[in-house]
Structures are given as C-alpha cells and as structure tokens.
Design brief:
Blueprint (H helix, E strand, L loop, with lengths): L7 E5 L4 H11 L3 E6 L12 E4 L2 E4 H7 L3 E4 L5 H12 L3 E4 L5 H5 L3 H7 L4 E6 L14 H7 L20 H24 L3 E6 H5 L8 H4 L19 E5 L5 E5 L3 H10 L6 H5 L6 H11 L4 H8 L6 E3 L3 H5 L2 H5 L3 E3 L5 E3 L22 H5 L1
Parallel strand pairs: 1-2, 1-6, 2-5, 6-7, 7-8
Antiparallel strand pairs: 3-4, 9-10, 10-11, 12-13
Helix pairs in contact: 1-7
Length: 370
C-alpha cells in the first residue's frame, strides 16, 4: 500500500508539469482520475513509442501517466459538466492546467468546486500565475525560462543563449505543485479545511537562481556566465573536450580537488588560479584544456579511477542508462509485459515499487462514474 492510498485526485492537466506532479502521487498509491478531451492528452501522440503490455504507447505519456485512470469528458457539454461534478464530490485533490479564466468559464473554478467538496485541495498550474501582467501570456517552458532570466546564462562560448536541454520550469512547477498539495493535505488533516494553490511555472523556477544570480537579487547587475563559478568561469567547474572529440567535466570547486589533480599533474603552481575569483582563472583553464585534449574520454575515465577528484565523463542518454549504477539502483525498469520506465525518484525503504499500467484513452468512463 502506497503512502497516498485512499487519496483521490481529479487531474485535468496535460503535457508535462501537471502530469509529472500527479504521476508521483499515482506512484504512491493515489487514485488519479485523468480527465482528457476526446482527442486525449497530446502527449499520447508524441514519438517515440514503446510496447507496454503489448500496446504501443508514447514513452513520454507512459512515464508521466502510468497508474492513472483515463476518462474522456466534453467539459463544454452539460453531460460532461455533470460527470465532472460527480468526480469532484468524491475528490481530495483537483488539479488543472488551463490558462487563467478557463475554469471559471467552464464553471469549475475553486469556489465552484469548493461548493461541491468543501475541503477540496485545488491546484491551478499555469505559466505565470492567475494574476499579474503576464497571467494571460501564452508560454511553454523555454519562454518562461527566457522571461525569468535563466536563458541568459544558458549560453554557449559566444555568449548567445541556446535552447535548454531540460524543461526546468515545467519540472519545477510539477515539484512545487506536489509539495504544495501535500502540505495542504497535511493542513487539512489538522484543520478540516482545504486550500487553493496558484502554482506558476515562473514562480516555481525563480528560486533556482539564488546561487548564481546573487548580484541581481541584491539589486545589482545581472551575472555573466564567464564570471560565475557555476556557469563557466571556473577551471574546476568546467567542460573539457578530449582527444576523440568527446567531453569530460570537472564538477567540484572545493580546493582539495584542485590540489589533488594539480599535484598529480605536477602543476601545483597553478593552485592560486583555482582559488582566484571566477573569470580570473584563464591560465588554469587553458592548461586543463590542453591536458584533456591529450587522451580520449575513456582513457581519462580510467586515469581518474583512483583519484579523489570530482570528475565525470559526459555521457549521452543511451550511455547513461546503460551504466551499472542505473541498474544497481533500479532506476530504468521494464514493466511486466514490456515497456520501459524511469523509476520514481521518491521511493521508500521496504517498498517494492512496480510501474502502474498505462491507461487507454477513456477506458475508465463507466468505472469512475459508477
């Protein structure tokens, strides 16, 4: 029995933030009823596909919607609205990811749902929140990162921003929404009162900059990547190309790691550069670039094996998923009947987690309303 067994969630979200939040609840035993339009969550159609129990599903959709039940409702019809009201009456949590104002027009804003279930925990997930100058501005992840300042330091050697490799504002919103909902459920147990949560991707991502944007937070200028220890201005927090055109990283800025490596390489004279401010370590970075270019990536992996230095090879996803560490921790699993999942990062000692089945579109229409 999962930690959230007995909790019922009505989930009207699609794509990434909301489904990521609710799959973490489903993984812990919550009954998550995913309400979809007739065409389904667009993630269902996103390639690539894998065979789960003999049925082809999008890997994206499967990994964010396993263990849920799927209902298809036309929320513009009276019948669809009546059916959603029935779901609300037995729900503990209601999650929606529409643009601000949509739920009010449909008749399912917080006050309307609260009238049906007074202790409901209601969570709205949007790009910029329900209020404010940007509330109605359309945006997916990259636009939010751009508006929040993050894209300005997601730059290449020429200083130009590049497309980020991680949908950070989507993921931040999913984690923030989950935390808020669980807090509200704890509070409800104590007071009997539900809560309304306005979770914005923008608001969720912004605190992630405190270690890099300190100067701007304090009212000063914006940070520049080349002058930041965590963004490319330090020799021991840096990406280096190897002889075979692959890459490795030094990922620990503590001076002990610099000392261990530079002593081994016979260049203790460069240690003062490792202690210098970011942006003033050019001679050290140049030396390390020239050094790493003398061996292949795998040769460096072998060379570093017995050295206490924060070093890692840059792996692609295929290489990463095939690493023994992944298997040892059970992080990439195949469900019974086939189909691959990334295991939940929240797992409790003694629990034997297995992936839930992937819901077919609308397959629970009768069951959820019976």
């Amino acid at each position: 029995m999962g930690k959230l067994s007995g909790i019922t969630v009505v989930d009207l979200t699609q794509f990434l933030p909301g489904p990521m939040m609710t799959v973490m609840m489903a993984d812990q035993g919550a009954e998550v009823i995913k309400v979809e339009p007739a065409a389904g969550d667009p993630a269902r159609e996103q390639a690539p596909f894998d065979s789960y129990g003999g049925i082809e599903h999008s890997v994206w959709f499967a990994n964010l919607n396993r263990g849920k039940q799927s209902m298809t409702l036309d929320l513009k019809s009276e019948q669809g609205k009546a059916q959603l009201r029935e779901l609300c009456r037995r729900a503990d949590v209601f999650v929606e990811g529409f643009r601000p104002g949509v739920m009010a027009r449909l008749g399912f804003d917080y006050e309307a749902v609260k009238a049906l279930k007074p202790d409901i925990v209601y969570c709205s997930i949007s790009a910029f929140g329900q209020e404010g100058a940007l509330a109605h501005h359309p945006a997916h992840d990259m636009a939010v990162q751009a508006m929040a300042g993050f894209l300005s330091v997601n730059d290449g050697p020429d200083g130009a921003p590049v497309v980020p490799g991680v949908a950070s504002s989507d993921m931040a919103a999913g984690l923030t929404a989950l935390s808020a909902v669980l807090m509200a459920l704890v509070g409800r147990d104590r007071t009997g009162e539900g809560a309304y949560i306005d979770c914005a991707m923008f608001d969720s991502l912004l605190p992630w900059c405190v270690h890099t944007a300190g100067s701007a937070i304090a009212g000063g200028p914006s940070p520049k990547s080349a002058e930041q220890r965590s963004l490319g201005g330090a020799g021991f927090y840096q990406v280096y190309e190897t002889k075979d055109g692959k890459h490795v990283v030094l990922g620990g800025r503590e001076i002990k790691f610099a000392r261990n490596l530079l002593q081994t390489l016979g260049r203790e004279d460069l240690l003062p550069f490792a202690e210098a401010p970011a942006g003033q370590q050019g001679e050290l970075i140049d030396f390390l670039r020239a050094t790493f270019a003398t061996r292949t990536r795998d040769e460096w992996v072998s060379w570093f094996a017995d050295k206490d230095v924060a070093f890692s090879p840059v792996l692609d996803f295929r290489e990463a998923l095939d690493e023994p560490h992944i298997a040892e921790r059970g992080l990439w699993v195949e469900s019974e009947g086939g189909g691959h999942h990334i295991a939940p990062s929240i797992r409790f000692a003694g629990d034997n987690w297995v992936p839930g089945r992937i819901p077919g579109l609308g397959e629970a229409n009768k069951e959820c309303l019976s």
